[in-house]
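I trust your eye. Have a critical look at both lines of this record:
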Amino acid sequence: MDIVFIEKLEVFTTIGVYDWEKKIIQRLVFDLKMAHDNRPSALTDDITKALDYSAVSKLVTDFAQNNIFELVETMAEQVAELLMTTFGIPWISLKLSKPGAVANAATVGVYIERGQRDGTLA
């Protein structure tokens, strides 16, 4: 299976457990790898047969900016489910980072994989 990827997609949103976090905008960084058969789009040079990373990026950005969660775990799960459902993605690897959340660490976050690389949903 082929992989379409998006790295370091920055989104600014409200996220966090603490009261002070609920009053500020913070930066999240998404790294996505998504299984997709690229042969049909490659053979026809047709964007409608491709997994459009611009559309994926817009959906992630809009979702993250319009939904408030306390946990990055919740955001990651819901974004993965949204992308798999919206675009028919059979497998996704999603890394969600929250830079600056912990002093002395460049970033913290979660890394999840959902679905099956062979094209069947888990």
Residues 72-87 form the longest helix (16 residues).
